[in-house]
């Protein structure tokens, strides 16, 4: 007869051994605070790539409440060592009252089992729970996530007596009969620690801030204690390490991307000026720092009060970029933020903003970046052909090319009558090189049927010397002219309802042909003349 019975109850130790520390940590950082206790699929808001790396508190909390029920045998040290207490603590930050209530119930049951147990470290665990209990003045309150994460990580440290933070946190819990949940625990003592391991203490605290800022309540308790001002000041200090600077940037990013009010508050406290100075002082080799600054700029784009200052900072950041050291994802993020900022300024009611144009320095920085990306794309395509690697990065680079092209049409080259001949010729040559990059990587985007021909037509209109047309019809520019003709033919061959798109290219070709007929310009392209005769 089989010895495996469905009704055979597993031991507590067997259940707790299934919980993995890595998945517990991922749950602490990523569990949705608005997740309801009822398992309704429509309410699940967890990314697919994180879902299998986390525990579902809607299952764990009822399980813990059963395991800790009155009359059950609970080996407290096993429960503590398994670190499932961390999951119970983090549930107290949930926006849903039933989730918090179940978390408080589990802690209450654990406290009762703890009182009846007998082991060496029992006193500190009772002090920890008493400190939390004495701080609760209402029924089922929501505790800030940064506080519950502090408690969860304190639980982890109390299982490791050799940890560098064991002594200061042990002393903190013993001398605090009531935990102040309206401020970050031990912030100034750990940030300005006098221990030999003061850098470890500070780094642990910075990691706590970066990971714990998940709601407006977390932001406000940090703002009330001037934590952000302290961090920004420390960033510029000669005492800060590169790792600490990265953590400070992660903290600022966490505060800026979660909620609009906090981003605006930080901007009002000169965050943009601080970012600008940080970029100017940063070397291009500090890739991790530049990457996080790119993320901050991306998350601030919808909340920034001053688009002009924001755009200036983006340009200073672009000047620091080296494709060799910064990943394509960060570059794409940065350029997307720049495009959105330029578009917002162009469409605004502010006359100074709506006439925004790229400077020659801006164009030069973009051109260098573009050329570097072209070289990287060519090398990636060769590697993919030889080794059969995935095309994700290649696709990202091509998407970045389109963003660069959309940014570049904000440029208005100096082609007026009063422009000196040397500058005029340089502008024509530069225009030809940039247009070649734009046309070289054209994709199935309406940009190549609408915005691009309109910009090109506008540039030809301000060119009273017809240098652009001469360039197109010469052997030097015939490559770009051929690309334009192909775009026209492509638009002409699409469905009837989209044929209006080809009118923009048609107007350019006819304008060039009229200029050719009324001047002494000669064309090197037989195809051009044939196309013009056909579309008239």
Automatic annotation (TrEMBL):
GO terms under cellular component: nucleolus
Top-level taxonomic group: Eukaryota
GO biological process, one term: maturation of LSU-rRNA from tricistronic rRNA transcript (SSU-rRNA, 5.8S rRNA, LSU-rRNA)
InterPro entries named among the record's database cross-references: URB1 (IPR039844), URB1_C (IPR032436)
Residue ranges occupied by any URB1 C-terminal domain in the UniProt entry: 86-274
Pfam family of the protein (one): NopRA1
The protein's name: Nucleolar pre-ribosomal-associated protein 1
Organism whose genome encodes this protein: Caerostris extrusa (Bark spider)
Lineage: Eukaryota, Metazoa, Ecdysozoa, Arthropoda, Chelicerata
Gene: URB1
């Amino acid at each position: 007869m089989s010895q495996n019975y469905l009704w055979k109850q597993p031991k507590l130790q067997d259940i707790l051994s299934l919980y993995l520390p890595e998945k517990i940590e991922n749950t602490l950082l990523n569990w949705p605070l608005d997740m309801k206790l009822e398992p309704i699929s429509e309410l699940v808001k967890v990314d697919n790539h994180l879902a299998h790396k986390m525990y579902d508190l809607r299952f764990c909390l009822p399980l813990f409440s059963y395991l800790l029920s009155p009359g059950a045998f609970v080996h407290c040290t096993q429960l503590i060592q398994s670190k499932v207490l961390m999951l119970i603590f983090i549930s107290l930050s949930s926006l849903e009252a039933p989730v918090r209530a179940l978390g408080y119930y589990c802690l209450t049951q654990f406290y009762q089992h703890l009182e009846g147990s007998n082991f060496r470290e029992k006193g500190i665990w009772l002090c920890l729970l008493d400190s939390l209990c004495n701080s609760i003045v209402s029924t089922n309150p929501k505790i800030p996530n940064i506080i519950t994460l502090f408690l969860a990580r304190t639980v982890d440290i109390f299982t490791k007596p050799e940890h560098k933070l064991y002594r200061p946190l042990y002393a903190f819990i013993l001398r605090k009969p009531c935990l102040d949940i309206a401020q970050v625990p031990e912030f100034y003592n750990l940030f300005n620690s006098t221990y030999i391991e003061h850098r470890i203490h500070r780094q642990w605290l910075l990691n706590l801030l970066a990971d714990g800022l998940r709601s407006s309540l977390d932001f406000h308790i940090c703002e009330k204690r001037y934590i952000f001002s302290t961090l920004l000041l420390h960033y510029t200090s000669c005492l800060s390490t590169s790792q600490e600077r990265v953590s400070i940037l992660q903290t600022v990013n966490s505060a800026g991307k979660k909620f609009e009010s906090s981003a605006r508050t930080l901007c009002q406290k000169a965050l943009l000026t601080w970012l600008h100075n940080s970029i100017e002082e940063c070397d291009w080799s500090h890739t991790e720092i530049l990457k996080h600054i790119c993320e901050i700029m991306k998350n601030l784009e919808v909340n920034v009060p001053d688009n002009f200052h924001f755009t200036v900072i983006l340009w200073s950041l672009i000047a620091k970029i080296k494709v060799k050291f910064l990943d394509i994802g960060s570059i794409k993020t940065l350029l997307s933020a720049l495009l959105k900022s330029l578009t917002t300024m162009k469409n605004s009611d502010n006359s100074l903003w709506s006439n925004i144009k790229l400077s020659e320095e801006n164009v030069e920085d973009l051109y260098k970046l573009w050329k570097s990306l072209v070289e990287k794309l060519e090398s990636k395509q060769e590697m993919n052909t030889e080794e059969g690697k995935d095309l994700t990065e290649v696709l990202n680079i091509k998407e970045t090319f389109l963003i660069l092209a959309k940014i570049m049409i904000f440029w208005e080259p100096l082609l007026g009558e009063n422009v000196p001949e040397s500058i005029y010729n340089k502008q024509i040559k530069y225009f030809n090189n940039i247009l070649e990059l734009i046309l070289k990587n054209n994709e199935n985007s309406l940009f190549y049927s609408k915005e691009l021909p309109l910009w090109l037509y506008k540039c030809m209109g301000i060119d009273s010397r017809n240098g652009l047309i001469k360039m197109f019809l010469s052997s030097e520019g015939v490559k770009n002219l051929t690309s334009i003709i192909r775009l026209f033919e492509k638009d002409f061959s699409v469905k009837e309802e989209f044929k209006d798109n080809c009118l923009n290219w048609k107007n350019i070709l006819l304008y060039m042909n009229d200029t050719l007929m009324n001047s002494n310009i000669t064309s090197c392209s037989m195809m051009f003349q044939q196309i013009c005769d056909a579309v008239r």
